[in-house]
């Protein structure tokens, strides 16, 4: 782990401004504000928030997954960035997998399990920025896990979808207490996960990476992850990558994250000088093409930075983006030298405290509940980030022990003249840059307030591959002129009826002017809470 000196963050409770927490679940957002009221700061609050989400939304995140974070402190010229994404285990090689007949790593398999980075991320954040003990930050999650919580509509539907894959796992009884998927409103308790969080509160990473959890990870991965692999911390302090767009500086996590795609999309969109009205078909056409102009290359550009062909800064070079913008056809969809939809298992959360400290944090199992394998009867479900690797010999993203895979998690943090301007992120797997670019463009270019930007109809596309045409799904609330205009420009358009909770939830805090948090209306449990209301 890259060590860093303890950094001081002022406590939010004594700051002059309103504290705000936005997350996919109201219980988690409330815990974040409670922590700030007790003297914690934004980072303390985010850790506590994340721990609660791991209890009440196990289909999105948990200690068996990975974590990235961007932290802003007043006076800093750039954010502090944390990469707590796990590495491949040393118990298997790409040659082993190819010799066993694999052409790729199956999403729901032992080989897709990499070392979880979440707990190391919590500890790194608490060690560097925390003002309250880690045990205090995990206490609310432990209490909710023991006392129980109501199953949301989204969790009930997710557990129903995953029933056949999950029900025989050792940790299944916590999620299926009667052997069947729980109905919405059912009270669920998770005492096994409470014990694990309690062990982390008492013993730090040793409380997670030893004993039954560690044994369970090794067993679930069929030895591809070893106990020795678990001894290495997965948390590294790194330099963020930034780009100027719409009068602000947008920051994100560099490779192995795909985050640069959000920044590149928005800068190309800006260079194309689009109209101001999101209902104008040209606006949406140019935004879609700005994304497609970069996204087709992702599979070959995003990997562990040690083996990547380019750095994130090189991928965001202004001349490179200008050249891509020049190739966009303003009148019809382009076929760039340019594939199934996966359900994103991710939770994004953001907190701003009263003193102006802000954190953009994302934590994930990857697809739904990840590998669908648990670490024994611990209540810990293991992610499947290893499926982000490929098995192409010599490729920068080829599976290798100790290596980090291509990662979809793409948090952003925005500054203006060095001051914090906006915190923005979402779940959504491959589609995260799509949703972030749409909200940021609606807010920063079209002038929508963040509430209206959240409610604006969204589009979605499967990750573009070289040589593919543009195929866009769009929410039915979109204007008919927009839908018809996109079709005339050569996009294959499918209108999606009803709510689309998988297209989010996006969470955003607008720091400019009046501090304001906006939750995504697509998810019933999402909440933006403040201590000023």
Give the C-alpha Rg. Answer: 22 Å
Helical amount among residues, as a percent range?
Answer: 25-40%
The DSSP helix count reads 19
The major beta sheet can be summarized as: 7 strands, antiparallel
Shape: globular
For the largest sheet, list the strands in their spatial order: 6-3-2-10-9-1-20
CATH architecture of one domain: Orthogonal Bundle
Strand content: 15-25%
Task: Describe the structure using short key phrases.
alpha+beta; Serum Albumin, Chain A, Domain 1; seven-stranded antiparallel β-sheet; six-stranded antiparallel β-sheet; 19 helices; 20 strands
Describe this entry's structure for a reader.
The protein is of the alpha+beta class and 533 residues long. The protein has a domain of 180 residues: Gamma-glutamyltranspeptidase, large (L) subunit, C-terminal domain (Serum Albumin, Chain A, Domain 1), CATH 1.10.246. Helices cover 33% and strands 17% of the residues. It is built from 19 helices and 20 strands. The strands form 5 sheets. A 7-stranded antiparallel beta sheet has the order 6-3-2-10-9-1-20. It has a 6-stranded antiparallel beta sheet with strand order 7-8-13-14-18-19. A hairpin with a 7-residue loop joins strand 2 and strand 3. It starts with 19 loop residues before the first strand and ends with a strand. About 2% of the residues have low confidence.
Record the SSE blueprint.
Layout: E1 20-23, H1 26-37, H2 42-56, E2 66-72, E3 80-84, H3 94-99, H4 118-129, H5 134-147, E4 149-150, H6 153-161, H7 163-166, H8 172-175, E5 187-188, H9 191-203, H10 211-220, H11 227-230, E6 236-238, E7 241-245, E8 248-252, H12 260-271, H13 281-295, H14 298-301, H15 312-315, H16 318-326, E9 344-352, E10 358-367, E11 373-374, E12 381-382, E13 412-416, E14 419-426, H17 432-444, H18 450-455, E15 459-460, E16 471-475, H19 480-488, E17 492-496, E18 506-510, E19 516-518, E20 527-530
Parallel strand pairs: 16-17
Antiparallel strand pairs: 1-9, 1-20, 2-3, 2-10, 3-6, 4-5, 7-8, 8-13, 9-10, 11-12, 13-14, 14-18, 15-16, 18-19
Helix pairs in contact: 1-2, 2-5, 5-9, 12-13, 12-16, 12-17, 13-19
């Amino acid at each position: 782990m890259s060590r860093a000196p303890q950094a001081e963050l002022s406590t939010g409770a004594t700051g002059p401004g309103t504290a705000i927490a936005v997350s996919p679940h109201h219980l988690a957002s409330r815990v974040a504000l409670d922590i700030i009221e007790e003297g914690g700061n934004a980072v303390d609050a985010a850790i506590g928030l994340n721990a609660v989400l791991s209890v009440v939304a196990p289909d999105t995140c948990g200690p068996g997954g990975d974590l990235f974070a961007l932290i802003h402190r007043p006076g800093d010229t750039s954010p502090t960035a944390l990469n707590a994404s796990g590495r491949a285990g040393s118990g298997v090689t790409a040659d082993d997998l190819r010799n066993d007949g694999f052409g790729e790593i199956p999403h729901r398999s032992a080989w897709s399990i990499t070392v979880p980075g979440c707990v190391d991320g919590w500890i790194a954040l608490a060690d560097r920025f925390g003002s309250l003990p880690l045990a205090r930050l995990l206490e609310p999650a432990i209490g909710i896990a023991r006392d129980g919580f109501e199953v949301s509509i989204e969790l009930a539907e997710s557990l129903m979808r995953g029933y056949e894959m999950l029900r025989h796992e050792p940790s299944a009884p916590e999620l299926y207490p009667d052997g069947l998927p729980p109905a919405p409103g059912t009270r669920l308790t998770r005492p096994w996960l409470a014990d694990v969080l309690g062990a982390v509160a008492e013993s730090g990473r040793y409380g997670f990476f030893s004993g039954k959890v560690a044994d369970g990870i090794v067993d679930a991965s069929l030895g591809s992850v070893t106990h020795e692999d678990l001894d290495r911390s997965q948390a590294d302090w790194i330099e963020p990558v930034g780009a100027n767009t719409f009068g602000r500086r947008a920051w994100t996590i560099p490779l192995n994250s795909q985050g640069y795609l959000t920044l590149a999309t928005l800068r190309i969109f800006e260079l194309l000088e689009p109209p101001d009205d999101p209902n104008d078909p040209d606006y949406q056409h140019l935004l879609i093409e700005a994304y497609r102009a970069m996204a087709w290359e992702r599979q070959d550009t995003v990997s562990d930075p040690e083996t990547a062909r380019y750095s994130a800064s090189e991928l965001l070079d202004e001349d490179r983006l200008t050249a891509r913008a020049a190739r966009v056809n303003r009148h019809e969809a382009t076929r760039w030298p340019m594939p199934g939809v996966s359900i994103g298992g991710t939770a994004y959360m953001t907190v701003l405290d009263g003193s102006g400290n802000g954190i953009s944090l994302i934590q994930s199992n990857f697809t739904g509940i990840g590998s669908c394998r648990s670490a024994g009867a611990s209540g810990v479900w293991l992610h499947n980030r290893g499926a982000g690797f490929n098995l192409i010999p010599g490729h920068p993203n080829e599976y290798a022990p100790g290596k980090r895979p291509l990662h979809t998690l793409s948090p952003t943090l925005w500054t203006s003249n060095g001051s914090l301007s906006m915190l923005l992120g979402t779940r959504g797997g491959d589609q995260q840059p799509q949703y972030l670019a749409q909200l940021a463009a609606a807010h920063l270019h079209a002038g929508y307030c963040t509430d209206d930007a959240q409610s604006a109809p969204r589009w979605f596309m499967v990750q573009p591959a070289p040589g593919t045409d543009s195929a866009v799904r769009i929410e039915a609330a979109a204007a008919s002129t927009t839908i018809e205009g996109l079709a005339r420009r050569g996009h294959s358009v499918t209108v999606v009826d009803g709510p689309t909770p998988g297209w989010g939830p996006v969470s955003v805090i607008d720091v400019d002017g009046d501090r304001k948090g906006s939750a995504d209306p697509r998810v019933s449990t999402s909440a933006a809470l403040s201590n000023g209301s």
